[in-house]
Give the backbone structure.
Amino acid sequence: MLAVSTMKGKKKFRSLKESYPPSEPCSCEICRSYCARPGWWTVKEASQALKAGYGRRMMLEISPEMTFGVLSPAFRGCEGNFALQEYANSGCNFLKDGLCELHGTGYEPLECRYCHHLRKGLGQKCHADIEKDWRTPAGQALVKNWIENCLAAKEQNRKNTAKIV
């Protein structure tokens, strides 16, 4: 929730979704370039995406100071892993033939829905506010849950592969 001052000096709280409404669809070069870098979900959106089965296509981004993590759509080749610099130029794994697989599904990240060439400079504020959402106990509990489930799935895959060989 974000605090917003009203005309009478009182604070009204608005959700991130209310504070950062979706932009109009655009396929200009600038807007398409935004799609190459995975945008961030809010904690609630990431939780819903996990429940919908997208967990294997997420990655864990760790803050530079290593104090919190964010689940986001993965770089292509980095699915189910930590965000690794070597994959940063591979683009978002949901971007296929220039189109987002999440667009219109209800699982497109808030940051992706909001950013637009007409909102120059506002994407950084959106990103910073989503970061605050992930710095919460709920955000970090979701990260912990994803790590545990991701590791368990990888271990099960390893065991299944060992049985075949």
The longest strand covers residues 58-62. The mean pLDDT is 89. Residues 26-164 form one domain.
